[in-house]
Amino acid sequence: MTDEIAVIPGDGIGQEVVPAAVRVLEAVDPEFTFQEAEAGDAVAENRGTPLPESTVDTVEAADATLFGAAGETAADVILPLREAVGSFANVRPARSSPGVDALRPETDLVFVRENTEGVYSGIESDLGEGVTTLTRVVTESASRRIAEFGFEYAAERDADVTVAHKANVMRVTDGQFLDAIDAVAEERGTEYETELMDALATKLLLDPTQYDVIVCPNLAGDVLSDLAAGLVGGLGLLPSANVGAENALFEPVHGTAPDIAGEGVANPAATILSAAMLLAHLGHDDAAADVRSAVERVLDEGPRTPDLGGTATTDEVADAVIRKL
Ligand code: NAI
Ligand code: MG
User: Fold this and answer.
1) If exposure means fewest CB atoms within 10 Å of the residue's CB, which of 144, 256, 288, 309 is most exposed?
2) Which of 273, 280, 279 has its CA nearest to residue 295?
3) Residue 264 region, left (φ>0) first, then alpha (ψ -120 to 50), else beta?
């Protein structure tokens, strides 16, 4: 069966790392067809919108999407695209790689972040006289859905689940989040641990090896996964998946890196690892594992891009990954 992949390089280094990752996908499975689409600052300038209708159509029609990054228009691009694939879970693995200088070289974590509500629901008000408010939305259905996804994801990997929360303060909303998770765990007969999200930040910094899969509300997942990026050696390495019931979008955690864009030296590892997550999502588990191990061997043996202390270009790293395949 031919899988159709929507490809959206976007702005800045997205134009460099996404084509590199597409070459890797072509090397593992020439049965893919690729539909390229536009989004981001450059399209906003040329066509008056950062996210043309035709791009949303392409994403909806595809089996999965590989996205690079958008610049100043990022929020206007990525939030509607996550919605277009019906994404409810943001999966962010943070794993140290051999040969990469990392604060915690033994880190191997996966954040499963609720991706639709919490404090990112966008319900903010300016009441005047210097008073502003934000409504934190937590529903039983979304909490159950992320719990089911997180427990299933962990079970497939034989991993432990830790749930991050702050129910001692946000008693009603995180109380409901925890109740929903507990109900799902009971139905599945699964064990799990809970941690207060602030205490978890310290524990992750001191000893990340205590944790495997961390299920968290939206904001906690955003903050804690960026903390984990610091543990494993940098933004150029972190992939992510936005998973929905029938569709999904894969993207590096990093942005457009305007400071190095156009120089051809961006690290393609995060995007190639995102492509590996895409392969696994489409059921190509062996190909996904091959790509991951090829990237790890290249990170270990070189060539490396300047962010990792090397002198290689984006394309030289992608070529090395393809040779390992
Ligand atoms: P950034 O991730 O683009 O860059 C932060 C630092 O990390 C820079 O020094 C950059 O050179 C470095 N870096 C990032 N990815 C790298 C890679 N693959 N290889 C080597 N070095 C890499 O974040 P920043 O600077 O905060 O944002 C830049 C632009 O990107 C902004 O316009 C922002 O809105 C956008 N952005 C878009 C995102 C998205 O589309 N999902 C996510 C984050 C930021
Ligand atoms: Mg973030």
Assistant:
1) 309
2) 273
3) left
Closest atom of ligand 1 to 69 CA is: 40
259 catalytic, yes or no?
no
Q: Which pTM value belongs to this model?
A: 0.93
- 233 alpha carbon – ligand 1 mean position (Å): 15
Ligand nearest to the CA of 234: 1
18 burial via Cβ count (<10 Å: 0-12, 13-18, 19+): buried
* Beta strands in the chain, from DSSP E residues, in sequence order: 4-10, 33-36, 64-69, 89-95, 108-114, 124-128, 131-134, 161-165, 193-196, 213-216, 239-243, 248-252
Please say if 222 is a catalytic residue: yes
Reading the block at residue 22, the tokens are 């597409």
The residues pairing with 134 across neighbouring beta strands, listed in sequence order, are 124
- Ligand nearest the Cα of residue 256 is 1
pLDDT tens-digit readout, 244-258: 999 999 999 999 999
pLDDT tens digits, 17-68 = 999 999 999 999 878 999 999 999 999 999 999 999 999 999 999 999 999 9
DSSP-assigned states of every residue in 92-157: EEEE--TTS--SSTT-EEEEEEE-S-BTTS--EEEEETTEEEE--B--HHHHHHHHHHHHHHHHHT
Nearest of 10, 11, 7, 22 to residue 314 by alpha carbon: 22
If we measure between CA atoms, which residue out of 2, 16, 1 comes closest to residue 268? 16
**Two structure tokens written together for 154:** 């962990």
pLDDT of the residue at 1: 60
Q: What pLDDT, on a 0 to 100 scale, did the predictor assign at position 29?
A: 80
Q: What is the sign of the dihedral through the CA atoms of 183, 184, 190 and 192?
A: negative
254 touches ligand 1 (CB under 6 Å): yes
Pocket of ligand 1 contains residue 238 by CB under 6 Å: no
Give the integer Cα–Cα distance in Å for 312 and 251: 22
The count of C-alpha atoms lying within 13 angstroms of the C-alpha of 53, restricted to the half-sphere facing its C-beta, is 0
Start-to-end Cα distance in the chain: 22
Q: What is the pLDDT of residue 295?
A: 96
